[in-house]
Structures are given as structure tokens and as C-alpha cells.
Specification:
This protein has five helices and seven strands; from the N terminus they run H-E-H-E-E-E-E-H-E-H-E-H. The protein is of the alpha/beta class. The protein has one domain: 3-Layer(aba) Sandwich (Rossmann fold), CATH 3.40.50.720.
């Protein structure tokens, strides 16, 4: 990662983004953001036990159920759910965790950083992609 812009580095290197809390409703921010990222060449893996699929990809109940390599976990869940998601990301040795705008959980972020996971918190992945990549 270049010291100059580690977020741009993460976005450039990533191929697969698991989106925890992805909705199959096109009006939800998680859907619009994920559709944008998908249109820019990323594979989107929905992680939401309430839906069978979204954006043409099978949905999984949890990160632990995803059979494929994940480069970024993008979290669209309320902060009280973040700790468990971070624990799963640590277990799977996922290199980056991205908490969307208003998703703030400092203890979970600190735990992830201690596990040498790159953490972005309270930022929109779509906006950061538009500005940096």
C-alpha cells in the first residue's frame, strides 16, 4: 500500500466485495452502492439471510458461509451488529473492512486493526471510489 493513499490502494487491488446487509430493494442505499461497484468491475457477494439473491449473485447468511475469497467486507448494518461481522472477518483473514457512512464502532475497528485488517469507517465506498480510483 502506498502511504499516500491506502484507501485508493485497497480499492484498486480488490476484486470481490462481500456486502453485509445488502438489500434486494433497488431503493435502498446498499443496493445502489453495490450496483455502482459491480458496474465498475467488482464482484459483489450479498450477505443477508433474509434474501435469496441480489444483483444476480447468490446471497449468504453470514460471511462464514461465503465459499469464495473476499477482499473487502462492506458493512451496511447498524453499529450494534458490527462486532460479530468483524469477528467473522478476522476469522476469515479478510484484508479490509469498510463501514459505510454512519456505521461507527470504534472497539470493533480497533480489534480489526490489531488483527492487521485495514479499516475504513463512516465513509461511503461509492464516493471514495469516485474520488480516488
Amino acid at each position: 500500500m502506498s502511504a499516500a493513499d491506502p484507501i485508493a490502494d485497497v480499492l484498486r487491488k480488490a476484486k470481490t466485495i462481500a456486502v453485509v446487509g445488502l438489500s434486494d430493494n433497488p431503493l435502498r442505499p446498499s443496493y445502489g452502492v453495490s450496483a455502482y461497484m459491480q458496474s465498475h468491475g467488482y464482484r459483489i457477494i450479498p450477505v443477508n439471510p433474509a434474501i435469496p439473491e441480489a444483483l444476480g449473485e447468490k446471497s449468504y447468511a453470514s460471511l462464514l458461509d461465503v465459499p469464495d475469497k473476499i477482499d473487502i467486507v462492506n458493512i451496511f448494518r447498524r453499529p450494534e451488529f458490527v462486532d460479530e461481522i468483524v469477528d467473522q472477518a478476522i476469522e476469515l483473514k479478510i484484508p479490509a473492512i469498510w463501514m459505510q457512512e454512519d456505521v461507527i464502532h470504534e472497539p470493533a475497528a480497533e480489534k480489526a486493526r490489531k488483527a492487521e485488517i485495514f479499516v475504513v469507517m463512516d465513509r461511503c465506498i461509492l464516493k471514495e471510489h469516485q474520488q480516488r480510483v
